[in-house]
Task: inverse folding
């Protein structure tokens, strides 16, 4: 008797408890997992060096965000880094999209053995790791080592697979009759590609842009090998160098000022294009 | 003379045939979707992805380094070096462990968040964006944030009033760093699991409820099997992605303590910096082979599981 009532008791109070428990749990998790790290970054980036040596969650006794951000700007070569980052990421994204779309169109519409072999080859980069050491060797021989064109070529080669994979899947779902109609009107392939395929690809282009931008903007590993720490250094390399000075003095206040500025562009892009990004990522992944 | 004449004779018909073909005889596909649209992409991919990976099968067998003017074939010397000093086995063990744990954490966190935030309310949409935030921040920055948190003089110890060397354990630091990796990418897994959950037909869940299935039973018998494609995608990308890890490890531990977190890419970076290019290339080749050996059966296996469930 008592066992039955106990069971039915949990059965009815469970969902009600959960109705309030769920948001409470979400708030708690968000506070701990995202709030605390974010708070640490923001608070520390406003502290004088003396207070930031041992990072903690306390508010600064003396606020000096302006000075920290200005120092991070000058000591971290932030403007140069920003320019360098843009100068490699933007062309890489454009190339990945344009070259990828052209290839995806052919791969989606033609069925010969050679075409499917080329498709399989070009999407192998989804799984295979880039051979970063021999990339350096090859770039040296082309005279592209430590140059922006070299970095752009490497990023394009690395991320083409992603865009070709997503775009080929998408184009296959576009009815071929749309092209047929334009062809009857006498449109040449280039015109059909530019006027029909590219506009229809817009949702995938948005996703691919975000993914490639996200990876390339925050990449430091491949940038180390290809660009090195010289004049062409991107923002993440500069951040690494600012933090490398950590050995001699604890400069958490500068590191985190740098982290904030470096992350803002990506957060801004996400906020602007949030809906597209979310739908793009999910529709591509689960088919 | 005679020779050229014969050749000319032979060439003529084939040229004529080709010309005929060009006049309206090309397959329709080739006219409507000419191959040169695909050529630039294939060329860039071959030149900057495929060729380096092929070169990577040669340079590990040479003495290429900053100490030699030329590159000479030296057979298995590099492999012997990395086997004998123990770094090869250690890198394999560390990387595989890191990848397995990171995939576990990333998917566990992601699935948990997706279940929590499944309902499409304003509250939930806001917090989905909050949990996606770490994906947008560079992995290097994430590493520094967690170093500041977990340092012996860091924020966690100061809040808890403890003095634990979180990043100083040769056993547990690897687990902790892979958990940070899972934290950074959990938002992406969450989105994909959410899409998977959304794809489950409502009447299927309704039917399960009518049959008296509780939340756990519904999860085990309906939700989890229906999530198979999302699991395939998430597990594969998490495993492959975390085998290529560098930034988070470099920023939190730099491979330490006592090389206990020195994954392949950290090793390659260190050895390359010392000018031992061929040795770095050796490790790069081994990583490539391991990824191939794991990725192919994994994709096939998970695909099969999708069809079975």
Result:
């Amino acid at each position: 008797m008592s066992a039955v009532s106990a069971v039915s008791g949990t059965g009815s109070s469970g969902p009600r408890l959960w109705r309030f428990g769920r948001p409470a749990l979400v708030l708690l998790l968000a506070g701990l997992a995202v709030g605390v790290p974010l708070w640490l970054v923001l608070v520390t980036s406003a502290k004088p060096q003396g207070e930031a040596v041992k990072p903690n969650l306390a508010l600064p006794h003396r606020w000096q965000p302006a000075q920290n951000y200005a120092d991070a700007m000058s000591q971290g070569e932030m403007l140069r880094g920003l320019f360098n980052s843009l100068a490699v990421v933007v062309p890489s994204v454009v190339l990945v999209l344009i070259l990828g779309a052209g290839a995806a169109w052919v791969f989606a519409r033609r069925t010969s053995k050679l075409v499917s072999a080329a498709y399989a080859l070009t999407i192998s980069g989804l799984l295979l790791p880039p051979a970063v050491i021999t990339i350096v060797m090859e770039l040296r021989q082309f005279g592209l080592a430590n140059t922006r064109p070299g970095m752009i070529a490497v990023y394009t080669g690395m991320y083409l697979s992603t865009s070709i994979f997503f775009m080929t899947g998408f184009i296959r779902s576009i009815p071929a009759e749309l092209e047929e109609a334009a062809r009857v009107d006498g449109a040449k392939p280039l015109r059909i590609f530019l006027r029909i395929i590219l506009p229809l690809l817009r949702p995938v282009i948005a996703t691919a842009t975000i993914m490639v931008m996200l990876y390339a903007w925050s990449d430091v590993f491949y940038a180390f090998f290809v660009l090195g720490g010289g004049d062409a250094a991107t923002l993440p390399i500069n951040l690494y160098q600012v933090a490398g000075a950590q050995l001699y003095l604890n400069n958490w206040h500068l590191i985190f000022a740098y982290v904030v500025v470096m992350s803002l562009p990506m957060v801004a892009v996400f906020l602007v294009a949030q809906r597209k990004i979310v739908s793009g990522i999910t529709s591509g992944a689960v088919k | 003379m005679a020779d050229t004449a014969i050749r000319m004779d032979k060439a003529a018909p084939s040229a004529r045939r080709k010309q005929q073909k060009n006049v309206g005889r090309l397959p329709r596909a080739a006219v409507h979707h000419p191959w040169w649209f695909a050529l630039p992409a294939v060329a860039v991919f071959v030149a900057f992805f495929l060729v380096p990976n092929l070169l990577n099968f040669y340079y590990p067998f040479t003495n290429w380094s900053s100490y030699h003017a030329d590159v000479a074939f030296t057979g298995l010397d590099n492999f012997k070096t990395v086997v004998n000093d123990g770094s090869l086995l250690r890198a394999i063990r560390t990387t595989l462990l890191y990848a397995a744990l990171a995939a576990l954490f990333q998917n566990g966190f992601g699935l948990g968040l997706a279940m929590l935030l499944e309902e499409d309310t304003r509250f939930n949409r806001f917090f989905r964006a909050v949990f996606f935030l770490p994906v947008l921040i560079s992995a290097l920055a994430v590493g520094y944030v967690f170093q500041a948190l977990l340092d012996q003089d860091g924020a966690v110890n100061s809040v808890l009033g403890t003095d634990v060397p979180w990043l100083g354990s040769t056993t547990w630091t690897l687990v902790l760093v892979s958990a940070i990796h899972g934290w950074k990418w959990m938002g992406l897994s969450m989105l994909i699991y959410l899409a998977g959950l959304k794809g489950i037909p409502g009447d299927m869940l309704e039917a399960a409820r009518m049959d008296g299935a509780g939340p756990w039973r519904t999860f085990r018998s309906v939700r989890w099997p229906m999530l198979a494609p999302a699991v395939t995608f998430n597990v594969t990308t998490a495993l492959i992605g975390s085998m290529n890890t560098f930034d988070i490890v470099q920023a939190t531990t730099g491979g330490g303590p006592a090389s206990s977190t020195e994954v392949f890419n950290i090793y390659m970076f260190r050895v390359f910096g010392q000018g031992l290019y061929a040795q770095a290339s050796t490790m790069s080749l081994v990583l490539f082979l391991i990824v191939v050996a794991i990725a192919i059966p994994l994709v096939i296996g998970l695909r099969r599981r999708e069809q079975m469930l």
